[in-house]
Structures are given as C-alpha cells and as structure tokens.
C-alpha cells in the first residue's frame, strides 16, 4: 500500500482540482460554478487519470520529446475514452465538441486537446512538485485515511451509477425507442 499511497493522493488531488477547473470555466462561460458532472461529489476522475499516466511516463524515464507528445495524446485519449464510455453506458454526453473544428465524435477536439496539452505540461512540471511536497507533509495522516477516501469515492461512484441507471429506466417509451431500448 505504501507504493500506491502517493498515487492515490495525486489522483484525489488532481480529480478535485479538475472539479475546481471545470467549475471555474463554467463560471466564466455560463455564469454558474456548478456544472453537472458524472459523479455527485467534487471530483472529476478524468483529471486524476491523465496526470497519473503522465507521471508513469516520467517515472520510466521517457525522452523529453516523447513525453511532450504523450502530454498531448494521453489527456485527449482519457477524455475520448471517458466520453465514449459515459455515452455508451448512460446514453448521455456530458460535453460536446461536435460544433468545433477538428473534433472526433464530439468527445475531443483539437482546441481543447491543445489546452489539455498545455495544462499537462504545467501540471507535471509546475504543479506536481508542489503536490508531491504536500503529500510528504500529510503522508502520516493520508496513509490511514486511504480506506475512508476509497470508501467515499466508491460510495459516490456506486450511488451515481445507481441513480443514473434508474433515470434511464424512467424514460418515457418514446425516449426509449429513440435510444433503441424499446
């Protein structure tokens, strides 16, 4: 568990910061901080996954040009797979880039891929040293809290899946036909 502990901490911090980032962007663009996400709690797991994958690439000592390329590809791949899975499972698209140029199935587009690329570089080289320092400061407290954090995240995930699946079953028959369920 000791080897996993910092990565669970990073995932939690970056998932929370992703929620803050999306809320801030929504406040700027739509006038309200609250934007519906997949989970009910203040976490966006996509924002936790991409940095962990990039940190893994950094840990194995990839050459810098390769790492820069991965910093563009990984966040876009995480966003695409997340959007594709969410739409396939819950029949809902939480974001839609279909009106933007150079997009793929509305899940990713070049403009936001470039944003994620810049944020990934800033995250790994600017923010990660601070997050790692924070981890070192709270490690003694964090390690015993891990089971509680995992329990809370799992409860949020299970509750969200249950309520969203129930919402699909409560569709009227016309909506079920449109979705291919009738």
From TrEMBL:
Pfam families: ABC_trans_CmpB. Coiled coil: none annotated. The chain crosses the membrane at residues 7-28, 62-86, 114-135, 141-161. Keywords: Membrane, Transmembrane, Transmembrane helix. InterPro entries: CmpB_TMEM229. This is ABC transporter permease.
């Amino acid at each position: 568990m000791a080897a996993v502990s910092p990565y669970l901490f990073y995932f939690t911090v970056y998932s929370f910061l992703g929620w803050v980032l999306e809320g801030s962007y929504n406040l700027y663009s739509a006038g309200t901080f609250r934007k519906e996400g997949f989970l009910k709690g203040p976490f966006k797991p996509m924002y936790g996954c991409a940095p962990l994958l990039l940190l893994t690439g950094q840990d194995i000592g990839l050459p810098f040009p390769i790492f820069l390329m991965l910093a563009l590809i990984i966040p876009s791949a995480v966003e695409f797979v997340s959007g594709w899975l969410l739409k396939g499972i819950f029949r809902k698209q939480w974001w839609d880039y279909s009106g933007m140029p150079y997009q793929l199935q509305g899940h990713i587009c070049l403009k936001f891929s470039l944003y994620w690329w810049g944020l990934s570089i800033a995250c790994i080289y600017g923010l990660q040293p601070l997050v790692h320092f924070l981890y070192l400061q709270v490690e003694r407290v964090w390690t015993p809290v891990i089971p509680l954090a995992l329990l809370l995240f799992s409860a949020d995930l299970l509750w969200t899946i249950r309520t969203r699946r129930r919402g699909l079953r409560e569709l009227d028959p016309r909506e079920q036909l449109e979705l291919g369920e009738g």
